[in-house]
Write a structure and sequence with these properties.
- Helices cover 18% and strands 39% of the residues.
- It is elongated, with a radius of gyration of 25 Å.
- The longest helix has 21 residues.
- With 346 residues, it is of the alpha+beta class.
């Protein structure tokens, strides 16, 4: 009997034991999904649950975070859910982005390994990270560790879901800064400041990478995109007046920018060239540009040089994409009577 077959046998038996109930209540919080890697028993996502305070000194301060957590995980009809594959563990994983009326509300990631399974839920409030719920399924042995391997290693225990452990950690953020953390077995007592700082860096870093991940591939970012050489103009009705306009990219040693000529009025708009446009004054960094005709896109929100969240925005007219290879950029689009910048990278 090969290792893969034995693995599925363990999966079946574990599902049976879990369905009948065990002494470990957390082990019941599992589900199956044929569309994911062979770790077919999965940690269950949080649905319609409350985060209850337990002997805490920050109960009132954390109340809005808990209320937002309950509000989001009570939503059953999402406007859209986008899925991305993740390959930063041995067995892979996925990230799901949950949107309600164009607003990113939460991100859920699953990571699978030979010795673990990790479910992490990121909840946003007003576009910023508010709450992180981490559930770790630590296997008693690697998933390939069947009775044959067990005997070969003179061991007395083989892989089994029913013998594994689930660990839950909860982290609370104000203005995208970690202010409190409850780890499995802890009753809400405060942690050392240095530890919270390190945990803040870890979770904010993971969150920022997830935000960047949805922008890393043009095929998932845009449905209607045409890349154009920087030396070539772009023609489109940028301001929505029914006439074709012309955009030209100009770059030299001293200054750079984009010149837009409106076809109906012959009005010339200059963006850059030393004049402030959003946070930009010049565009010497641009490697390529293009035309986007999508009706919606994604905007990265930055505060004090830190990514604090993101949101979907509607596009009223064809937009100009400008990017630097492996660094990012954004869109120039005409909204509310003027050209605006939509930031899409760090």
């Amino acid at each position: 009997m090969n290792h893969k077959l034995i693995y599925y046998l363990f999966t079946f038996l574990s599902t049976f034991f879990i369905s009948c109930g065990t002494e470990k209540n957390k082990a019941i919080e599992t589900e199956t999904d044929d569309g994911l890697p062979p770790n077919t028993i999965q940690l269950r996502e949080t649905v319609n649950e409350e985060d209850l305070a337990v002997n805490e000194y920050l109960t009132e301060r954390l109340k809005p975070i808990r209320e937002n957590f309950k509000r989001i995980n009570s939503i059953t009809n999402w406007t859209s859910i986008d899925t991305q594959e993740l390959w930063d563990s041995t067995e892979g994983g996925e990230a799901k982005y949950y949107y309600q009326s164009g607003q990113l509300e939460k991100i859920i990631t699953r990571h699978f390994g030979e010795t673990f399974q990790q479910l992490t839920e990121y909840y946003l409030m007003n576009g910023q990270l508010s709450f992180v719920f981490e559930k770790s399924y630590r296997y008693n042995r690697p998933i390939y560790y069947d009775t044959i391997v067990m005997k070969e290693n003179n061991d007395t225990e083989a892989f089994g879901f029913d013998k594994s452990e689930i660990i839950e950690d909860r982290s609370y953020f104000e203005n995208s800064k970690l202010v409190h953390k409850i780890e499995d077995g802890n009753n809400g007592a405060p942690y050392a400041a240095d530890y919270l700082i390190e945990e803040d860096k870890r979770m904010i870093g993971d969150f920022n990478n997830l935000i960047k991940h949805i922008l890393s591939d043009f095929s998932s970012e845009f449905r209607d995109l045409t890349i154009v050489n920087l030396s070539d103009p772009i023609f489109a009705d940028f301001n929505g007046d029914g006439y074709k306009d012309k955009a030209t990219f100009k770059k030299d040693n001293k200054t750079s920018g984009i010149i837009i000529e409106h076809g109906k009025t012959n009005e010339v708009i200059k963006i850059g060239f030393g004049e402030k446009f959003a946070h930009l004054t010049e565009f010497n960094w641009v490697d390529f540009w293009g035309l986007v005709k999508d009706l919606e896109t994604y905007e990265i929100v930055i505060e004090d040089s830190e990514i604090i969240g993101g949101k979907k925005v509607m596009l009223e007219n064809p937009s100009i994409l400008i990017r630097k290879e492996e660094a990012g950029g954004g869109l120039i689009t005409f909204k509310n009577g003027k050209y605006q910048w939509i930031h899409q990278a760090d």
